[in-house]
Amino acid sequence: MLVLVQAGLGAAASVVQPIQSAADRSQPESSSQIRTQHRKESEEGSSAADVGHVDWRSIWEIMLAQFLLGSAMLIYRVDFAVTVSDRYGTSNTANGYISAFSSIVGTVTGFAVGHISDFYAGDARRMFLHSAAAQSLCLLAAANAPRLALFAAGHTTLALATTVGRVASIQATLVRSSQEHTGALIGTGATVLSVARMLAPTASGISQEVFSHYGPGILSCVLSLAGTVVLLIMPSKTPIKTHTQ
Predict the structure, then answer these.
(1) How far is it, in rounded angstroms, from Cα 75 to Cα 204?
(2) Span 158-172, pLDDT tens digits
(3) CB–CB of 187/131 below 8 Å?
C-alpha cells in the first residue's frame, strides 16, 4: 500500500513541476514584453518631441531659396512645349528631342555630382549658391534667346545646374542643422517643393495672360534671381547645433 501511495505522489509531482516551470518561464517573458513596449513608447515620444528642437533659424534661408528656385523651374516647365512652339514654331518632335537631350545631360550630371562636390571640398552652401546663379543665367538666356539653337543650349545647360542644385540644397540643409533630425529636414524640404508644385500651374497661367508666351520665362527668371539673392546677401549666422542625448 505504501508503495502504491509513494508511486502516486511521485507521478503527481512529475506532472506539476513542468507546469510550474512553464509558468515561471512565461512570467519574466511577459514582463520583458511590457518593458519593451514601454521603452518603444518612450522612444517614440522622445523622437516626436525632438522635432521641436530642430534649429529652423539656421536653415530658413536655405528653405526659402529652395522654394524660390524650385518654383522657378516648375513654372518654366509647366507649359514648356506650348511656349516653345509659340515662340519658335517648332513641332512636337523637335520639342521632344530638346527635352530628351536635356534629360540625358541631367542624368549624366547626376553621376558626376560626387566629383563636383569634391571640387567644392564639402562646402555645400557655396555649391548651392553657384548652381542657383547658373540656373538664373540659363533661364535668362532661354527666356531671351532669339533663335532656337540658343534656346536649346540654355535649356540643356539648365538641366546641369538644376541637377547639382537639388543635391546641394539637401546637403546644405543637413550640414546647417542637427544630423539627428535628417528625416524631419528632408520631409520639410519635400513639403516646400510640394507647395511650389501646387502653385506653379496657376502662376504660369497668370503670367501667360499678362506677358503672352514670354510670361513663364520672365517669372521664372525673377524667382530664380530672388533665390540667388537670398543665398548671396542673407546667409545664416546661427552656429550649427548637434543635439546629443
Answers:
(1) 5
(2) 999 999 998 898 888
(3) no
Summarised one tens digit per residue, pLDDT across range 79-88 is 888 888 888 8
Domain 58-233 coded CATH 1.10.287.3240 = no
C-alpha cell at 131: 548652381
Distances (CA, A) of 111 to 106, 134, 165, 167, 169: 9, 19, 14, 11, 17
Q: What pLDDT was estimated at residue 53? A: 65
Residue type, 160: L
Per-position b or e across 26-43, b if 16+ CB within 10 A of its CB: eeeeeeeeeeeeeeeeee
pTM, to two decimals: 0.71
Query: In whole angstroms, what is the distance from residue 83 CA to residue 208 CA?
Result: 9
- Residue 168 · residue 162 · CB < 8 Å: no
| Residue 220: pLDDT band with limits 50, 70, 90 | very high
Q: Which residue has the cell 513596449?
A: 37
